[in-house]
Automatic annotation (TrEMBL):
Keywords: Plasmid. GO terms for molecular function: transposase activity. Residues 2-93 form the Tn3 transposase DDE domain. GO terms for biological process: DNA transposition. It comes from the Bacteria. It comes from Clostridium perfringens. This is Tn3 transposase DDE domain protein.
Length: 93
């Protein structure tokens, strides 16, 4: 979401040896990194909901809706919301 809003974010990663990385797809080039590769990103759910994610990012950027309202709405669904799942997958990147 930070990328979509065009913010610059460069966190300091503490204890890099404990960090698990996520890949977009299994790649044979990185066999020596198997110890730190945790899994892969679900690209399908991102592609299926990308238009909704862009609309949401635009609403936040234009201050049409507050972030707290969006979070409360996404958290209120009893079942897993596809938009919330897509945002979680994008957050892994």
């Amino acid at each position: 979401m930070i990328y979509l809003l065009r913010f610059i974010f460069a966190p300091r990663i503490r204890e890099l040896y404990d960090v698990k990385l996520i890949t977009l797809n299994k790649c044979e080039k990185f066999l020596n990194l198997n110890g730190i590769l945790k899994g892969k990103i679900n690209e399908k759910i991102i592609k299926d909901n990308y238009e909704k994610v862009l609309i949401l990012a635009n609403l936040i950027k234009e201050c049409t809706v507050t972030l707290s309202l969006i979070i409360s709405k996404l958290a209120s669904y009893s079942r897993q919301n596809s938009l919330a799942a897509a945002l979680r997958e994008i957050d892994k990147i």
